[in-house]
Amino acid sequence: AQSVARAKQLRAKFEKWQKNEIEQEIKEGRVDVYSQLISNESIESAKTIRERFENMKKSETAMENTSKTQIKRFVVSALQ
To answer: What are the boundaries of each domain within the chain?
Structure first.
């Protein structure tokens, strides 16, 4: 029971500390370089994925535009 109460107390303390840290960073204008780097990489990967899907759409429409002619190799004449 004591350990549960201690865990709750530490969690509340950490959450309060975390909020204070974020507020101080905003006030002081400090920027977390690592998190910006991560977000920039994820944005870059999203751009790459979007480009891939757009290219896939273009290639699919190009394939649809080319008409497939059916070649009849074995012709059975109706005059037999």
So the answer is: 2-57
